[in-house]
Amino acid sequence: MTDARPLGADQAAFIAAVRADDAARFALLTERHRRELQVHCYRMLANYEDAQDMTQETFLRAWNKRESFRGHAALRTWLYRIATNACLDLLRKRNDRTPVPSELPDPDSEVPYLQPYPDRMLPADPQESVVARETIELAFIVAVQHLPPRQRAVLILRDILGWPASEAADALGLTVASVTSALQRARVTMREQLPGRRLDWRSPATHELSEDERGAVRSYIETHERNDLDALASLLRDDLRFAMLPDPGTVTTTAKDAVDGWLSGGLFQPGHDDWRGIATTVNRMPAAVLYVRTPGDPEYRLFAVAALHIVDGKIAELTGFDAADKPWLDLPPTL
User: Which of 68, 170, 222, 235 is the most buried (most CB within 10 A)?
Assistant: First the structure.
């Protein structure tokens, strides 16, 4: 039997491009979905470079499978199915794309392959579920990584994209009962992994930074520029969660211990005490881009990006990334 429903404009144009073997038209119709597909792959993989690769793999697979598209589902849905399975295939091949036990006494496991996502690469439509802030922030992305790959896919398709169980089951080659069971288990794990103060990811989405967040990131930069360690410590909660990736060791620490640890590592000491910073956002989170000038160097050079989660005006979570090897963040190399 064929589906008698009328085709949407996208589906009809796509089928016409396939029948004409028109690669340019095919690329034009699929390219408009690139950003949201890349966010989808990032949620699955927590790594920006992997997400780029799998988005490109999605388009390659779509071209190779173009004859299989019959318009029974929206073109967007068909592409999401391909992208999801491309990510699952990658996860089957890569044993370094799962959380690893912490090397520190903290019982948590870590996601050393986590990379920040530049906000400028998010889809432009703020109403899209794919850019809901609660589901792109780092804590959520890390929590998702603790799910087995198929549970991960089910949670994203069902709870973030809002697919019905039957559609998710069809995309993943599962039964509806299996999808329902996987979703229930995934939700339990997510609530265990997300820090207790985090929002429910199924609550109404927010997008904009608050004044508290904007003020805290400005203060964070200013305390570095003044080398004011007391003021820096006063910005941190006493149950701070801190990580500096890709170094091992996500820890919950006091504000004083965090600052003492940075000092013992050489920061704020001669040679690493001349700072400048700019405010930005990654993963819809406030972030500080830090630059340091060493003796004899006329310029401040890119050092790190600190993504901040702010609670009641204080920094509750700080995830630092080496910024020098992440050209996709499009940051000036010097100030």
Answer: 235
Q: For 55-96, what is the HEC assignment? A: HHHHHHHHHHCHHHCCCCCCHHHHHHHHHHHHHHHHHHHCCC
160 or 4, greater pLDDT = 160
What does the chain come to in residues?
Answer: 335
Q: pLDDT tens, 110-128?
A: 899 999 999 999 987 655 5
Per the structure, the complete domain to which residue 50 belongs is given by: 9-193
The DSSP-derived string for 150-163 is HHHHHHIIIIIS--
Geometric angle at alpha carbon 92, from 284 and 111, rounded to 5°? 40
Of residues 107 and 188, which shows the higher confidence score? 188
Question: What would the mean pLDDT of 311-330 be, rounded to a whole number?
Answer: 93
Last residue of a domain, one of 193, 226, 259: 193
Same domain, 94 and 232: no
Cα–chain-centroid distance for residue 96? 17
